[in-house]
Write a structure and sequence with these properties.
It comes from Natronoglomus mannanivorans. This is PRC-barrel domain-containing protein. By secondary structure, the protein is mainly beta. The protein has one domain: PRC-barrel domain (SH3 type barrels). Helices cover 10% and strands 35% of the residues. The protein has 1 helix and 6 strands; from the N terminus they run βββαβββ. The protein has a 6-stranded mixed sheet, covered by helices on one side. The longest helix has 8 residues. The radius of gyration is 11 Å and the shape is globular.
Length: 79
């Protein structure tokens, strides 16, 4: 069963299976998260306080791509 995404993930780092940081969760909508690959300091702060945002450089991660969610959102290694 894949991990689930909630609004609590906004602002968390997204990492691959080897631990390489890929960005931060900018917004969660349903079973999808918009991930900002190059967040500025301002975008980090806005995400932490719940001011979700999504822009054209963000990419989408779906729940079936996740290994687990904890302090970080970790993607499966077989993508």
């Amino acid at each position: 069963m894949p991990a689930t995404l909630t609004d609590d993930e906004v602002g968390k780092k997204v990492v691959d299976a080897e631990g390489k940081e890929l960005g931060i969760v900018a917004k969660v909508e349903g079973q999808r998260a918009a991930v900002d690959p190059n967040p500025s300091v301002a975008e980090h702060v806005m995400a932490k306080v719940g001011w979700e945002g999504e822009d054209e450089e963000d990419y989408i991660v779906t729940e079936d791509m996740l290994d687990r969610v904890g302090d970080e959102v970790i993607l499966r290694g077989d993508l």
